[in-house]
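Hey, I'm writing a tutorial for new members on how sequence and structure tokens pair up, and I'd like a real worked example in the thread rather than a made-up one. If someone can provide the structure for the chain below, I'll link this post from the tutorial.
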Amino acid sequence: MFEVKRLRLLWELNARGTVAAVADALNYSPSAVSQQLAILESEAGVPLTRRVGRGLELTPAGEVLVAETADLLDRLEFAQALVKGTEKYVLGTVRVAVFQTAVLALMPHALRHLRREHPKLRVEMVQHEPEEALYETSARGFDLVVAEEYPGHAVQATASLTRSNLTRDRLSLAVPVGDACYDEWPPIHRLEDAATIPWVMEPRGAASRHWAEQLCRVAGFEPDVRYETADLQAHVRLVESGHAVAVLPDLVRVDRATSFKTVALEGDPHRTILTATREAASESPAVWAVREALAAAVEHLHEAS
């Protein structure tokens, strides 16, 4: 009889590629992971992995076992959700991955809601970039992810994840006002007026960066991106202090007095805020409770605006 914990290690190896990555994800030592995989291979009676260069890859027997393990893990997770559903209270721990503006704008209200409605539920939150967080959720590193999707940049579809849209967030051009503006800057009333102005954007590879660059190129200019940071609060400060312009979502202004003005963009673009979880975890009372709390946070924002 195979040990589920050892099967999970083989599944993780297939998902993450190296013993070191598996050890890091599950808080094991690499030697402990290797030892448990060796025991599993002995139990199977056939080689499950083979060394390729400095790494390991699955043998055909290992691939068969991983495929069956994936189904087994899903069934166990679904069974656990059903068992938890019989409890009077929502219990347990939910690990949530959230991107920055959702951490600031949505999570405080959501956590207050959960503390009031489900005081026995423990929520652990980690700030993560959406693409990585979606992968980690499918790999069971998180139970739920709050992600963003920019126009024309759909998040990667993953068969094991089920998504639900939370809200849409308007995107606007943020520009300095008053004394923060440089005398040589032209008045900015539309995107094209920012063609000669310094910009701040997220680092290359981010969906927001690609979308904003394409927006400028369609308008007929290449943006002068002098400042790069994934921290949108830094974007806000650079705009407010008169050093740059930026495309910013409305959520950065929640519960914060800002001293910049916004210029509407053609087509009134919005990004989509969504949640995603593994299909096997979608019936978990704890996951349902967190999704409900996030929906309540969105409703609170709409009522306050």
